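QA checklist item 7 of 12: single-chain prediction sanity check.
[x] sequence parsed
[x] length recorded as 744
[x] structure emitted
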Amino acid sequence: MLETKEKCPQERTLNLAKPYMDNRELSWLKFNARVLEEAEDKSVPLFERLRFLSIYRSNMDEFFMIRVGSLNDQMLLKNEKIDTKTYLSASEQLELIAENVKEIIPRFTDVYSDIMRKFAKERILVQIRPDNPKATPGLTALSKGDEEHLSELFKKEIQPLLTPSVIGKRHPFHFLKNLEVYAAGILRRADSEKGNVMIGIVPVLSPEVFKRVIYVPFTGKNSENVSPIRFILAEDLILHYLDRVFANYIVEGKTIFKITRNADIDVNEAVYDQDIELDFREIMEELLKKRKKLTPVRIDFKGEGTLDEYIKIATKLSLKLDEDFTFLHQTPLDFSYIGDLEEKLKEQEVLFYEKLTPQQAVMAEPDEKIFKQLDKGDILLSFPYENISTFIKLLEEAANDPAVFSLKITLYRVARDSKVINALIAAAENGKDVLALVELRARFDEENNIGWSLRLEEAGVNVMYGLDDLKVHSKLLLITKKSGSGIKYYTQVGTGNYNERTARLYTDSMLLTSAQDIGADASLIFNALSVGTAVGNTNALLVAPKGLKSKVVEMIDTEIVNGENGYIGLKLNSLTDRDIIEKLVEANKKGVKVQLLIRGICCLIAGVSGETENITVTSVVGRFLEHTRVYIFGNGERRKVYISSADFMTRNTEKRVEVAAPVRNPRARERILEEFFALLNNNVKARVQNCDGTYSKPEISPDDRDAQIELYKNAYQRTTEKEGLKRKREKKSWLSKFLKIFKI
């Protein structure tokens, strides 16, 4: 087991209400710093390091849109909200966020420079930056030949498509879109007074108009006979020729910028403001339009010099942003362009992670009907180590089985080209009663889900949108089948979404079972949802918001009674629920061993003397996104294991419909525990939380291995062993038939 570096005394000096509590937003920033560490890790393949930079930047965009947006809203309240864990006001949290983000920008720049230097040194990839390339080491300047080529290209292919505008006293304000990249310049007419300046802005248009990555032919001498891929970003080229775009002005200064708008839309407010007859899907469509026009919360500039120069531009743009939320970078402001580069570089395998292929589920037989297998026992699927084909096969069987008369499913996020949706449509077209609860409030997947809901309705699926005040976040499928004179339930409960793409990138578990008590509980859940309520009492499943948290607290209490013989193991994306944190601290004080695998936000600080010294917190950030939620209570024969859709955040335990399922099959339990303890003891991609709330990488020895890769290898080995046993059985069966035929 990984240990914290040191034990902290209870009286450590931190600005916290309690020494074992951390602020949610600051904890998230620590998580994103761990993502940045993967980009800094020189053992990670070069392009994958660039991808981690992209993930870091994308994470930060979402954080500002939602969390910073929410804090800004709180500041507008008459009585400003206070964080109940650290007693920080919204304004104090915003101040700490701004400080943290500004401190980490130089690290981000250094990593980007290092990556681009290495690309250039290996003659693989060269980024051209025409204006002061030395500002970001690793980038190169335009040669004379490049200038001639790009000048002509800009004149013929780009400039005619641009829509420049000027902001001044007599010019209307140009609406700035959320997260869109703009080139901007400080403009002055040649005959005007020095102080009479305006701002010229040019949107860098969508890839459908012209691509952001513009490839530049290699024209120099090359003795090594290796031609690097040379490119320039569209915004850099537009900025370079900004004086052509604003030909009637003197361009006195120029930059690239991007604004981030508050995207924390309030669905409930919209519901009450709208006519009661309005369809909820129409309400969501209106809210999405509203999101695009919400208040700016951040402006990012790309350029050199001091921030003061760019504050002038922000002021002229009338954004009314505090200087704390104006950030200066020397790197691209949007990394979505790397997909284009990946396509160009995909043949160079050394730049990427070793290719790994999800295996056939070891607990399922590919040549036997899934229903028949479930009649014999449960099946556990483990992603991304195993593929999702077994689950898809179950849906397709249900769609075509005459004995199946209903399928009910909760959909939170699905792939854009979804086999799950196709199977549900096929079931409806085959006359099955299909109910799909589509959560239209799945953040940033709203438009995708609106589209799927329309398609499902057109195919005859009965579509619901969930409850007015509760998101339905559970991953639950119930198939009801005629069996003799009665019915039989087949149920699936998962930790992740029904998304074939993310099943190859996220770690998740999926339980398929014919246990009738689980099926009966699932039926209660769907019946309650159908009439607009949340289920109350259940027998086997733990169901939020009414029955999950209380049962979890009961199981923690049981471990408290067992004291030093007690055990609690939790694998979550986030831990913020204060009630559960306090219970875990209570368990700690009774000597219960508590091991937490928390990838992201963790508001509990481990290793604090007298408070949490029996608790460890480990975060694994690596090639795959750790997404499985697992609850383990007790040791030996009294051990209980659950998989769940719910993190221990108040929004999950009290404000969403979530489902946790008991794992009873011994093989399935063994598999989950194997993965849990492998990750807990992973020295390579683990970070251990210290008693001051920081995280450290443990020392790595030559024998240490990446747990995610080891689990993948285990999946390969199980497949090999299973195929070997199959061939052995087939050979034995053939020999038996041979001996029987010839009566030997």
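[x] summary fact logged: The longest helix spans residues 707-741.
[ ] second reviewer sign-off
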